[in-house]
Amino acid sequence: MNDRGELQRFSYAERVIHWVAGLSFVFLLFTGLAFSHPRFFWITSLVGGGSTARILHPWMGVLFTGSMVIMFMMWAREMTIQDGDRAWLRAVKHYAIHDKDNVPPAGKYNAGQKLFFWSIALLGIAYIVTGIPMWMPGGALGVGPFYGGVVNGMRLVHYLSTVAGGLLLIVHVYLGTIAYPGTLRGMLHGSVSHAWAKLHHPLWQKEQSGS
Description:
Layout: E1 7-8, H1 12-36, H2 50-75, H3 83-90, H4 92-96, H5 111-135, H6 147-179, H7 183-189, E2 191-192, H8 194-200, H9 202-209
Helix pairs in contact: 1-2, 1-6, 2-5, 5-6, 8-9
């Protein structure tokens, strides 16, 4: 609990890593979109042109990957799926329409947030596994007889993973801003009100406040 009587939800380090991962992904998403089709190539002008975008894209991928690794180490233990989470998932339709009386109480993170975390973690692995061959198409030991086909396959998986990540990002932003007001405050300022916590994460609110 902070000086204003609010509950501390995220530390400063957690917020920094979250925003580094989020903003680097947005950069990757838009520059990747620019590379995907000539009609979108104009997007590269926002970052200094095509050459600059091609240089920055893989290095921003390194930043995104590093931040995801740190984020995973910070939160993986809290993201395990438990029996209460399975019950929450069965009632997700009630959560979607704000029918909180029919939604099992959640702890610090509900099952939807946990699934989002694991989905992004898996996509992060897909990005790095497919991104490296695209960045260095010659391979560490030179060009092999089938390497061109490997790169083309990796490019397809990379794009499909990016589409999935982009859709998840849209849902993530929508839920954190429009659908559930007050949620974004936790990631901006690190704290949330008791009322918000009691509404969305009652088990965590009870644990933190002792009431």
